[in-house]
Amino acid sequence: MASVMAQGALAASFAVSGTSFQVSSGKLSSEGLASYVQVDRSVDGKGHPVALLGIGDATLSDICQAAEVKTPIGTVVFKLTAGGEAGNVTASNLVIDGEDLVGDARFGTAQIGRDASTLDSVEGVKGEAGKFGLQAGDIEVSGVKSNAWSATGGNFRLKGMRVDVSLDGDKCF
After folding, report:
1. pTM to 2 decimals?
2. pLDDT at 92 over 50
3. Distances (CA, A) of 69 to 13, 41, 167
4. Are 124 and 9 contacting, i.e. CB atoms less than 8 angstroms apart?
5. Is 130 exposed, middle or buried (0-12, 13-18, 19+ CB in 10 A)?
6. Rounded to an integer, what distance in angstroms lies between the CA atom of residue 173 and that of residue 26?
7. What DSSP string describes 100-116?
8. Distance (Å, whole) CA 25 – CA 113
9. Which of 37, 155, 172, 173 stands 20 to 30 A from 28 (CA)?
10. Phi and psi of 128, rounded to 5°?
11. 23 with 94: CB under 8 angstroms?
12. Measured between alpha carbons, how far is 76 from 164 in angstroms, rounded to an integer?
């Protein structure tokens, strides 16, 4: 387990911030997808049900991530963008704990209803025995929109990355 966590295939357990965030991309392609339901916890102990989405080697046409943060001077939007004209964004062993995922999808060699403890399409991404899981050999999703609690990856390459922090700024969608 420690070896897999060190390689970035499985996120180490941590408390989520209590603030969900938006993630969007024009197109996501990946070798490997594994997914199952789990509960993320914030420091205050509150549970957040999520679909853990393990994505193998991913290529994204662009990416936008935005979170609203309340501060003494007002609501600030923390926004990170990358890709687009600068080139594709890549990530290996990407794990997203999301509330939802919207887009037009194609799943290759899908297995829906597989026991979560037997998932093997993304290294290190397995759920509890007896729990519902799904996986696919490859995926392609256009018009990706998701609200998430956490995202981790073994290796991100963010071409043309830009971080913006602004009062009442624009979010991704």
Report:
1. 0.85
2. yes
3. 23, 18, 9
4. yes
5. exposed
6. 12
7. --EEEEEEES-EEEEEG
8. 27
9. 37
10. -80, 150
11. no
12. 10
